[in-house]
Amino acid sequence: MNDFVLNDSETDIDSDEELQEAFAKGILKPGLNEEIEKAIKKYVNNVADLKAKLKEIELKLPWIEKLDLVTTVAPMAPDVALQMEETAQRRKNIKENTKGNQLYDPTQDPVLNEFKRENLIHRQAQAAVIDGIKRLKELKVPTKRPDDFFAEMAKSDEHMQKVRKNLMAKQAAQARTEKVRQLREQKKIAKRVQIDTKLKQAAEKKHMLEQLKRVRKGKSTDLDFLEDNKGKNSKGNNSKDPKNKISRKRANKDKKFGFGGKKKGSKLNTRESTNQLEGFNSSAKKKPFNFKSKSFKPNSKKKNQRPGKSKRKNSKR
Asked: For this UniProt entry, which residues form the secretion signal (predicted)?
């Protein structure tokens, strides 16, 4: 422990008081104690050496091997120019409306500048393609694949069949989904129509009952609503819908048993049935009864009727 000596505040060479005195005299400066000189880098534009190096590395090959082109920018299409104007106007409206009275500068808009930059690259590539195809045609170099050209497929037939099967399965699934969706929509529409029809029928029935109640109470004498309802029912019965057709068996049962209601005393005469004389004919003569044939047909003389016995005797004399 004797080998190690702790540096107390009294043994420190640079105490706080000494540092403060040095700073007051101007010996110390703020920051690092030792100043580092900054080396200024000088850029030399040696044009002669650059041209010599370019000549050294330049390949002296024909243009068909290099295909290098220096072209200007192709003219802008009218629809692209219109789209660019619409984009600038839309961006201006967004900026001015969201940020108050701040003026919009299209040259400082990064979105619009990015769009213009991409458009310039596209136009320059378009001009290069036009110039390059023109030069290739002058050199009689074909630029299109001939019609009878057969190239080896990058993928095997089995793989392409799997891809085709997968695409067909996706199309079938999409068609099935679309069909299910259409059926669901049709069911919703049919249910809505059915509900609307029931509500309309209930409203008409309620209206008719209210009018009937007014007639019974003597508040109204108009019975035209009954005729209208009867006409609607007759039109509904005359429809050619096969569902509304009544079978012969059902018609016979309805004729025999009726449609429900009171059955007792239905055949008794009433004042209306007594006054009806449509089926009664008083001028018709009663037909004589033939006891031999037991029928009501009158005796009609036969054409070849045999004469009596006395007539036959007198005819022989």
From this structure: none
